[in-house]
C-alpha cells in the first residue's frame, strides 16, 4: 500500500527541477560505474565489496558511519534499515552483538551477508529481505536509516537505493518507527538538501521525535549550496506519545 500518494514537494519548482537534474546525472554515473562490475571500498577500517546494482559508498557516507561508531553501546540491539552493502550494520557490530539488517533489494541482502563475513562479524548480524518493517520483529535500542533522497519512481534495483516514489517508504518508516523502539531508543537518520529535506522535517515533527544534528557538511552543485546531515532522534521522556 502506498502512503501519501498526494505528496507535494516542499521545495519550489526550480529547486525540484535541479534535484531531478542532479539525480539523472548521478544515476547515469552510477550506471557507468556498475558496468565495470563490483567495486571494492576501504572504508572506516572495513573492506566492502559492492555489486553493480547495490548503492556504493560515496563521499558523504562517513557522516553517518562515524555517527554509528560513536553511538552504538554495548548491549544495544541495532536495526540497520535499508542496509545496502551492509556497511552500517557492520560498523554497529563492532560494539553490538545483536544487529538486524534489512533491505528491499535481494542483491543488497546477499552483498551485506558477504561483507559481514568478509569483516568477521557474520555471527553478530542477521540480514533479511524486507520492505521497511515488514521483516522486522521486536524492539531496538538504535535504528539507523539512510533513506532514498528523491521522491521519484525507481526504474531498476540500483535506482531503488536513491528513489522512493512519493516518499512512501520513508513515510511508513516514521509512522511505524516508535513501535520498534525501546522506551529509550534512539535513531540516526542521514539526509540532505539534494532531496526534499523539508518533507523529512515535517515527518519528524508529525511523529514527535526530538532532533539534534550530530554531523553535517556542505558542497556546491551548479552554484547551489547543498547540505548533508546526520540527525539523532530521541523520544521525549517527559510526555510519552502513543504509536
Would you kindly provide a written description of the structure presented here, covering whatever features stand out?
This protein is α/β, with parallel strands linked by helices and 243 residues long. It has helices at residues 13-34, 62-71, 87-92, 106-118, 157-160, 168-176, 197-207, and strands at 39-43, 46-50, 77-81, 98-103, 125-129, 140-145, 181-192, 210-221, 224-234. The protein has a seven-stranded mixed β-sheet. The protein has a two-stranded antiparallel sheet with strand order 1-2. Helix 6 (168-176) packs parallel to helix 7. The longest helix is centred in the N-terminal third of the chain and has 22 residues, at 13-34. The relative contact order is 0.16.
Short description:
The chain is 31% helix and 28% strand. With 243 residues, the protein is α/β, with parallel strands linked by helices.
Amino acid at each position: 500500500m502506498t502512503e501519501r500518494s498526494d505528496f507535494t514537494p516542499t521545495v519550489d519548482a526550480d529547486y525540484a527541477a535541479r534535484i531531478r537534474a542532479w539525480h539523472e546525472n548521478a544515476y547515469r554515473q552510477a550506471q557507468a560505474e556498475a558496468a565495470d562490475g563490483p567495486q571494492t571500498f576501504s572504508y572506516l577500517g572495513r573492506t566492502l565489496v559492492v555489486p553493480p546494482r547495490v548503492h556504493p559508498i560515496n563521499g558523504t557516507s562517513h557522516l553517518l558511519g562515524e555517527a554509528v561508531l560513536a553511538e552504538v553501546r554495548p548491549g544495544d540491539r541495532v536495526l540497520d534499515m535499508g542496509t545496502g552493502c551492509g556497511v552500517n550494520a557492520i560498523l554497529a557490530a563492532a560494539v553490538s552483538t545483536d544487529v538486524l539488517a534489512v533491505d528491499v533489494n535481494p542483491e543488497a541482502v546477499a552483498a551485506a551477508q558477504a561483507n559481514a563475513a568478509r569483516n568477521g562479524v557474520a555471527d553478530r548480524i542477521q540480514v533479511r529481505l524486507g520492505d521497511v518493517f515488514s521483516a522486522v520483529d521486536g524492539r531496538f535500542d538504535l535504528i539507523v536509516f539512510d533513506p532514498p533522497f528523491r521522491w521519484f519512481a525507481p526504474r531498476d534495483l540500483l535506482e531503488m537505493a536513491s528513489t522512493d516514489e512519493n516518499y512512501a517508504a520513508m513515510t511508513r518508516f516514521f509512522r511505524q518507527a516508535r513501535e520498534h523502539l525501546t522506551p529509550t531508543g534512539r535513531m540516526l537518520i542521514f539526509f540532505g538538501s539534494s532531496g526534499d529535506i523539508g518533507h523529512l522535517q515535517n515527518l519528524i515533527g508529525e511523529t514527535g521525535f526530538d532532533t539534534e544534528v550530530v554531523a553535517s557538511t556542505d558542497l556546491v552543485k551548479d552554484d547551489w549550496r547543498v547540505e548533508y546531515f546526520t540527525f539523532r532522534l530521541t523520544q521525549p521522556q517527559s510526555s510519552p506519545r502513543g504509536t
